Amino acid sequence: MTAPSIRKVSEREARQVAEAAREQDWRKPSFAKELFLGRFRLDLIHPHPTPAVDDVRRGEKFLATLRTFCETKVDSARIEREAKIPDETLQGLKEIGALGMKIDTKYGGLGLTQVYYNRALALAGSASPAIGALLSAHQSIGVPQPLKLFGTQEQKDAFLPRCARSAISAFLLTEPDVGSDPARLATTAVPDGKDYVLDGVKLWTTNGVVADLLVVMARVPASEGHKGGITAFVVEADSPGITVENRNAFMGLRGLENGVTRFHQVRVPAAHRIGPEGAGLKIALTTLNTGRLSLPAMCAGVGKWCLKIAREWSTAREQWGKSIAKHEAVGGKVAFIAATTFALEAVVDLSSQMADESRNDIRIEAALAKLYGSEMGWRMADELVQIRGGRGFETAESLAARGERAVPTEQVLRDMRINRIFEGSTEIMHLLIAREAVDAHLSVAGALIDPDTSLADKGRAAARAGGFYARWLPQLITGPGQLPRTYQEFGELAGHLRYAERASRKLARSTFYAMSRWQGRMETKQGFLGRIVDIGAELFAMSAACVRAEHLRMSGEHGREAHQLADAFCRQARLRIEELFGRLWTNTDDLDRKIVSRVLDGSYTWLEEGVIDPSGDGPWIADATPGPSTKDSVRRPIP
Fold it and tell me: Where is the Acyl-CoA dehydrogenase/oxidase N-terminal domain positioned along the sequence (predicted)?
């Protein structure tokens, strides 16, 4: 059997590649960045920003069109049953302009704001998660967004009108042996005259089966006149040498048009390169700064659906003489779904509006929204299955066959599971956000813990760090959260904001203490860093919920009810936060590492005895050696 084509890289090289792709500067303020530094800058998010009148009119008009389309033209059960989105449904989405929601009107798009784009995705995703995923992959990370941010005018003129009307796009980064470690990227783009020649295999290409245009990340070898490095290209999906070798099937999102794509001697004009050579990962990460908001938007939509089903089912279902929701064990789950849905929508709307106004840097806010939305969305779907009991485990088709309402609870749970992996797994998001959260510390003291730094540079770093911490540490002792009348304009929610301010300073003190204690080993303390980020996510959600509730109260839209939901959410969140603070220092992380070592060295193989492994044969990672395809293409272009 042929060994997989694997690019070997050291841990240090992998870290350097990831670090080089980061945005290094903070040119705009960031609420979340300040939060992790112990500075609770409520003024950055309150009063809640609001969209322009024209944006609202245009957005509401399209939402009405999309709702009618989804209600009359989308057969979610058929998509689940046939495991694909019908051609006529895709054609209909093109006709109503859904492919061009985020594309400027001058290129034939709808020019929706991030707020209304996300609301449209929540709506479409509730009708069919596969459609939500297709629209998101096309516009959030596919061709339109990278070109909007980094494309030349010629590229925008050539590709954006097509993307707005008819051309579905896909984003190709992952490879069989490359996930969150892009330093291992093996697909190459070799310069040849006015072209680049692409060779390699891409895995999990969402939309790749039906795409017309591709954003491909490939490694350009350094040579005379070529800086080289990971580079982004726009590639025509029907180019000679491209083969969609497999349409992948998954636990959920059965209609997802996701495949394996092989490139063999594919010629791409140099004019189709996005940005300079070596800028591919930076382009990808910058694109995701707002692109990540699409996923929590759809999670918020699922929360709304879960709340609707929980309410209706609890009204119909009685046990021991009363509604099941009147029993505390079930009622607590309903309350969790209601409060969390309110908070998650608050996080998405606030982050989206800040993205539209472009006053703040929202890279951390968007990452927190993705992390928090995917985790809480999964929990809400899981709790709904529990509320529904055996009917939650039964398929909608089976329920209908025996005469009951076809509620696809188990399908939603399956569909939601991928969100904890899509666009950065929870574990990777913890590390990404943690890196941004400690950026201020590394900027002034990073050289002190870098083993390759000279003694002279360490001395200069020590002087900078001393000045920074002399100013910063005293700010963490006291703050507005200790004054009883602070934030009083928020009424009964003021106490939660005072708590958030105090917790923000405690979070910053904990981070500083950990850096002082572990120094260079801090990056290995992933359990600790994950809890730090989770505390920050809860505090951001609390803040967003309170600001949204007060905004709704001031505008006269369900203000009293919004305050009730925000209060309930904050009380629930505070319990989770206190548990996380306790687990920062009291946990089993060290013991867990020892157990893992024993598992890996085979000490516990006796524990695996007594079962049968139903897995099939084959390598753990498929062979991705470049070369011509031996399979027929399963690409399905939409007429």
Answer: 60-165
Residue from 333, 298, 301 nearest 314 by CA: 333
For the record, the structure tokens of 557 come out as 């839209």
Q: Quick one: 92 exposed, middle or buried, by C-beta within 10 A (0-12, 13-18, 19+)?
A: middle
Question: Please, are residues 272 and 253 in contact by the beta-carbon 8 Å criterion?
Answer: no
Catalytic residue among 345, 365, 394, 423: 423
Q: Look at residue 19 in the predicted model and tell me its pLDDT.
A: 76
Give the count of alpha carbons within 13 A of 161, CB side only. Answer: 6
Q: Is the distance from CB of 357 to CB of 28 less than 8 angstroms?
A: no
User: For this structure, is 423 an active site residue?
Assistant: yes
Amino acid occupying residue 400: A
How far is Cα 422 from Cα 227, in angstroms, rounded to an integer? 31
What domains does the chain contain, in order, with CATH numbers? 300-428 (1.20.140.10), 429-591 (1.20.140)
The reported pTM is 0.95
User: Mean pLDDT in runs of 10 for the chain (639 residues)?
Assistant: 55 74 86 97 96 96 98 97 96 98 97 98 97 96 95 98 97 90 92 97 97 98 95 98 97 97 98 97 89 95 98 94 94 98 98 95 96 98 98 98 98 97 93 91 77 78 86 94 96 98 98 90 92 98 98 94 98 98 98 97 98 96 94 92
Six-digit token pair at 351? 């982050």
Distance (Å, whole) CA 496 – CA 564? 13
CA distance readout (Å), 114 to 31, 57, 59, 310, 597:
19, 14, 10, 29, 46
